[in-house]
Inverse folding.
């Protein structure tokens, strides 16, 4: 409706009977629906009305999207008009990365909505410092976690790019303080002995991020990765046929590509997505023993398919487990709700976590990759074999990833309910004679079967990475045997 500016998604069984639905764009809005003084309206006001009262079961959600017009990077939310109070009330919503859309769920037969953003954000003021995670990060009272900010010292012109990872300083206690910087970031623009300096703070977009230092890997490593990955394959023929749409076989240590097939073809990647989710979690240096309470919001994965049709961790809202339990459930068993819970455990809103996934992809040179959610259930998560290989060059250094993707079973017990869980590895190659170092499976109807592995030659220490995407073979185990053949062929080529 309205040139796709306002869309309502109605899933099966939500409506109990046929009914007209009336949509309206409200033009005379400032007078009848006043916007709060500290907010700025960045969308039209839209209204819907499901006419027949008995046609809609309000226990089942409507999924709604509203387009907005703003390049500002933080503090956007959807508000609905609460008639009894005659004012706008904020509701949970998330930003659809790169689309300038807010998406949310609502449970009423009729309502009015608008997208608002905060406008009372300080741009200049004092910056202090603290010593915590030793990173280019900051605490801000104006921007949400995950936002990238450019902080410039007004006295000497020096600047630093930081990621917001905490809230503060409190504006009522420190009215002139605009931001607190980690000591590592502060000393790049001023001497810590000063204590405080005058700064300007600006949010930056993803294009500007590409021109800046990667907060999580060194510039030297980034250049080395790109140089090695772009080397041309020496061998272009295989002694056997393959079914995968896109393939890379490469020397895991040097980056040399030994064989490729459609390596830059953009395809849905299903649960291979979880490798980037793991990368972001690892970059944020998690506390593996942190206790996480499972939330109903983690069950948003059920918006895609029923739990019986997916890899799912069978826990209920309120049950508690550790970060490690979620990490292993996600990588070992590919549990989709574990990916959502793990993203939430970082303290970031899901939209901000996905934004970090996309920023990290750009910084790793994954220019044909786009993520819309952290599990891989959405076929709009797309990438290429070449881009996935670039990700493995950075991610497969982690012992936690090696452990979680090569273990045959992972056992844990929920903390508060003492419910035992056994997570079985979905990658059948962990039971093969390959010396498997890392791996991840993926499957969606739209993506076919996908598999990424890194294997080692026990005799000479050579390592091969194989990426296979889009295998639509009717034989459900074909993609395991095909990927195994590719790995063995690659190891043979390195002898």
């Amino acid at each position: 409706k309205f040139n796709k500016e306002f869309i309502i998604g109605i899933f099966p069984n939500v409506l109990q009977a046929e009914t007209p639905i009336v949509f309206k764009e409200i033009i005379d809005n400032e007078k009848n629906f006043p916007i709060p003084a500290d907010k700025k309206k960045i969308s039209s006001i839209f209204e819907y009305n499901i006419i027949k009262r008995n046609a809609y079961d309000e226990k089942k959600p409507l999924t709604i999207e509203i387009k907005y017009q703003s390049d500002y990077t933080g503090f956007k939310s959807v508000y609905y008009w609460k008639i009894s109070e005659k004012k706008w009330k904020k509701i949970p919503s998330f930003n659809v990365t790169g689309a300038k859309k807010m998406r949310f769920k609502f449970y009423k037969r009729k309502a009015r909505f608008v997208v608002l953003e905060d406008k009372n954000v300080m741009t200049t003021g004092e910056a202090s410092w603290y010593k915590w995670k030793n990173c280019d990060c900051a605490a801000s009272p104006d921007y949400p976690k995950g936002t990238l900010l450019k902080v410039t010292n007004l006295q000497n012109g020096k600047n630093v790019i930081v990621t917001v990872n905490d809230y503060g300083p409190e504006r009522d206690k420190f009215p002139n303080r605009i931001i607190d910087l980690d000591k590592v970031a502060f000393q790049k623009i001023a001497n810590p002995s000063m204590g405080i300096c005058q700064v300007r703070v600006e949010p930056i977009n993803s294009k500007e991020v590409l021109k800046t230092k990667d907060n999580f890997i060194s510039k030297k490593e980034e250049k080395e990765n790109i140089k090695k990955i772009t080397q041309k394959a020496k061998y272009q023929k295989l002694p056997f046929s393959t079914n995968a749409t896109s393939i890379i076989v490469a020397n895991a240590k040097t980056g040399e590509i030994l064989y490729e097939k459609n390596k830059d073809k953009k395809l849905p990647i299903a649960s291979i997505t979880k490798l980037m989710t793991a990368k972001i979690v690892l970059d944020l240096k998690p506390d593996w023993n942190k206790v996480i309470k499972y939330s109903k919001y983690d069950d948003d994965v059920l918006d895609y398919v029923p739990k019986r049709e997916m890899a799912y961790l069978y826990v209920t809202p309120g049950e508690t487990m550790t970060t490690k339990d979620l990490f292993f459930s996600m990588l070992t068993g590919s549990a989709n709700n574990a990916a959502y819970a793990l993203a939430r455990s970082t303290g970031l809103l899901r939209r901000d976590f996905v934004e970090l996934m996309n920023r990290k992809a750009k910084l790793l040179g994954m220019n044909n990759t786009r993520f819309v959610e952290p599990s891989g259930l959405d076929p709009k998560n797309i990438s290429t074999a070449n881009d996935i290989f670039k990700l493995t060059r950075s991610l497969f250094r982690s012992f936690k990833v090696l452990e979680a993707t090569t273990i045959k079973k992972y056992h844990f017990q929920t903390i508060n309910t003492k419910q035992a869980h056994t997570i079985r590895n979905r990658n059948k190659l962990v039971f093969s004679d390959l010396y498997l170092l890392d791996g991840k499976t993926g499957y969606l109807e739209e993506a076919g079967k996908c598999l990424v592995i890194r294997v080692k030659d026990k005799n000479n220490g050579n390592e091969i990475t194989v990426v296979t995407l889009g295998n639509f073979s009717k034989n459900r185990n074909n993609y395991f045997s095909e990927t195994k053949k590719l790995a063995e062929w690659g190891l043979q080529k390195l002898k």
